[in-house]
Design a protein that fits this description.
CATH superfamily: TT1751-like domain
CATH class: Alpha Beta
Helix content: 40-55%
Structural class: alpha+beta
Number of helices: 5
CATH topology: TATA-Binding Protein
Shape: globular
Order of helices and strands: EHEHEHEEHH
Largest sheet: 5 strands, antiparallel
Distance between the termini: 18 Å
Strand content: 15-25%
Number of strands: 5
Oligomer: single chain
Number of domains: 1
Length: 133
């Protein structure tokens, strides 16, 4: 687990490909995408520039609900999110909150540990697939 809770991977692909690979992987796993937020488009809408930056909000209520049953405040961090973004050097990155950090943040322990571990494994696999890592 990253100390800050933030996990960031560099992508071997361009922005559009990384985002498309993430979305396709989520779809293939039957994971619901609740929202797609194009921050760059939002910035452009108010006359500001922002490098490509898109947030996908996704999850599975069967997986996330036990965490919220243990601590309802986990709803601040769930559903899961992944940010695909391009940095100032042109490198495309994918960032997400480590589920173990989310659990620690909300003092979730005990019986939901296996669910947190499964989220960690799943998110890592999705991120690695999307980035080619």
């Amino acid at each position: 687990m990253a100390e800050s809770g933030l996990v960031t991977l560099s992508s071997a692909h361009d922005f559009a490909t990384t985002l498309a690979r993430l979305q396709a992987a989520l779809d293939a796993k039957g994971i619901t995408i609740f929202a797609r937020i194009d921050h760059a488009a939002g910035a452009a809408g108010v006359g500001l520039d922002l490098r490509p930056t898109t947030l996908l909000v996704f999850g599975n209520p069967a997986a996330g609900t036990p965490l919220m049953q243990a601590a309802q405040t986990a709803g601040l961090d769930l559903p899961l999110k992944a940010l695909v973004w391009q940095d100032a050097d042109g490198t495309v990155r994918l960032s997400y909150n480590d589920p173990a950090w989310v659990a620690a943040r909300h003092a979730i322990a005990g019986a939901v540990g296996p669910a947190v571990a499964a989220m960690q494994t799943g998110l890592d696999a999705l991120a690695r697939h999307a980035t080619g890592g």
